[in-house]
Amino acid sequence: MTAAISPTRTPATQWRELIARYWLPVGYLVLLTGLFWLDNSSIYKKLFYWLFAAPALFAVCLSPRLILNIGREPIIQAFLALSAWLLLSLLWSPADDPQGLVKRPLYVLLLFVGCAVIACNSRERLGLALCVSAWIAVAFALVNAAHFAWTAQPGERLVGFGALRNPLLSSHVFGFFTAYWMAMFVAHTTGINWRSVIACVALLAVLLATGSRTPLAALVACGIWLAALAGKRGLLAVLALLFACAAVLLMSPEMLLERGMSYRPQLWEAAFNTAMNHPLVGHGFHAEFQFNVVPGWPLSDPHNVELAVLLELGAVGLGLWGLMYACAFWKAIEYRRDEEYLAASTMLVYGLVAGMSEGSSYLSRPNESWFLIWLPLSFMAALSIRRRLFPI
Prior knowledge:
Radius of gyration: 21 Å
Number of helices: 16
Structural class: mainly alpha
Shape: globular
Strand content: under 5%
Largest sheet: none
Order of helices and strands: HHHHHHHHHHHHHHHH
Helix content: over 70%
Mean pLDDT: 88
Distance between the termini: 35 Å
Low-confidence stretches: 1-6
């Protein structure tokens, strides 16, 4: 009897497996948690380049066929179309350094590629890296909350340790992980998942300490989304969140009410009127604006991601942006019974709603805004690619 001969593993295959199983998951872990423990955002960006972007590019060079599989994903196709239009808009953009802006879509594309490489070569490691990161976020939330409770002065807002820069941006990151744990609570169908409850409480305490109301509204939207997909357990999550917000409102109403609407309606109206000057093609990527809605304090940020896209890329760009999200939510609804899809879609809802009242840096180097936009989208795209290649 002749023994079966196993196929020879080439050096390229060995390198690809090494990258997919070890190098990229470590880079993904650093990307998700680095803002908590690194000294500044510059180091955070450099670690992304070397621990995630570079190995992702190396992996597709070792396996060109992977490019075709990634390119078939509708979310990524929509992103590529958006990127092409964005790069074209540099022709009429007044941006000072258009050559430097060309690299921005590449960073995000390599995020999509890296997540897909992990998901397709090691089925569990993408979700495992996210889960480990979520526990690290809980640990840092507890430390930050304890330190803030001990040292905070009256009226002070929590920023956090590491490379976190201000309360609002800190809330983007902590809210991202709160949405993840809300999904994990709902996905656990037998009894109460106390680990998720403890994690949500710790993260929610930090979110309240930041004094930002944006993540609270976004988390309520997450609860409504979970209730729509998962029924009673999702409804329980949103009721618990509303109860927590009501308790804060009763004990410390100034935390949520003292800043009013922060001129948001006036700012959005001014931004929309400016966008209507070039409604179809926009003013061009990275164009600068000035909105005089606060006396003596001109603002350049529309505080709404979709308005920022409309301002810079016009109705064409906003349509492509909406198409990208439509593809993602279609997958979310189709595979709503899958725990990882449920987590991905909940984080997607969080980022989408949070971005409606904060942020305009929709295509930047790695920073806090990625937790609202590109990290949820890339996770969803990777799950979709994996399911297409390895249907269950």
